[in-house]
Amino acid sequence: MTGFVNKMVHLKTDRPTSVKIEIDFLGDGSWELYEKITVNGYARHIFPSGFSAHWVRLTSNVSCLASAELMYT
Fold first, then answer.
1. What is the rounded average pLDDT for all residues in the chain?
2. How many Cβ atoms from other residues are within 10 Å of residue 24's Cβ?
C-alpha cells in the first residue's frame, strides 16, 4: 500500500460474514486491527487518502468462499 495515493478493496463472499482488515504499518510483524466490514455477497472499502501500510491481511469470522481485490492508483 505504500507509495500509492488512492486505495480500495473489493470483497465478495458466498455467505454473510464479517471480514477483519489488519494492517502492518511498518512491515515488522506488528499487526493492528484497522476495520471490520460486514459482507453479505459484496462490499467495498475506500481507504483514506494518503493512508499507508506495508502489509494488509483479511480474515473472515466464518468458513466461506471469499475473494478480495485491492486496487491502487
1. 94
2. 16
34-70 b/e with 16+ CB inside 10 Å = b?
A: beebebeeeeebebeeebebeebeeebeeeeebebee
Beta-carbon neighbour count of residue 12 at 10 Å?
14
User: Where do we find the cell 506488528?
Assistant: 30
Q: From CA 17, how far away is CA 50, in angstroms rounded?
A: 28
- List, for residues 13-40, the tens digit of each pLDDT value: 999 999 999 999 888 999 999 999 999 9
Check: CB of residue 9 under 8 Å from CB of residue 44: yes
